[in-house]
Amino acid sequence: MHKKPRLGLIGYGAFGKLTAQHLSPHFDVRAYDPAMDADDAHAAKVDLAEAAGCPVVILAVPVGILEQTLTEIAPKLSAGALVIDVGSVKVKPAEAMLRLLPDHVRIVGTHPLFGPQSAKDGLAGLRIAVCEVRGAKDARRTAAWCRKMLALKVFNVTPEDHDREAATVQGLTHLIARVLLKMEPLPTRMTTASFERLMQGVDMVRHDSPAVYQAIERDNPFAAGVRERFFSLFDKARGELDS
């Protein structure tokens, strides 16, 4: 029987569990997370050294603790290991990985543009951004694997291009959703198709952790500019109504 390659998964929150679910058919997943209770159907619970010592290491931790995590795993990484992050922003993690990880490891940045809610019916056709960080060949191979094995739609982008687009795509979505959630309860009886579509979008991010929202709005270097433009246009629209 062919032995599956080992994969270290650091972080076993909602997205870490989703990652393990879809990668366990291809890898022997070893997961580290202080909050992880025990082994489950998709991953074995291990200590940090064992997870970081795998040939492939995926970082599924909040952007806010990424640098601390990188510092902790740096001396434990194997020579030639492939380190992949899955954060919602890419410029800040790419810079941190280049600065804090040893030269003997390969680095690829990714951002799966989905979560447990949008992936509940499977991954096929969902989108993922792949960013070259250290080595174009590794980024290309990661992208090709995601296309072939997970049927994902892959976008090869720079960290800067990713964050520039995500500042609008994710930043505005989460900002508007946060406001609408504060307005609940909202009507559910006499609704329109457009309102229902809007609420579907809200429901897809309703359970995202505060750390995800903070990363999208505060750790993306382009998010503040998008927010300011949105608020400026909002104030203009309000002024037109008031006049």
Automatic annotation (TrEMBL):
Top-rank lineage group of the source organism: Bacteria
Keywords from the UniProt entry: Oxidoreductase
Residue ranges of every copy of the Prephenate/arogenate dehydrogenase domain listed in the record: 5-243
A Pfam family hit: PDH_N
Transcription recorded as keyword: no
Full protein name: Prephenate/arogenate dehydrogenase domain-containing protein
Keyword Acetylation assigned: no
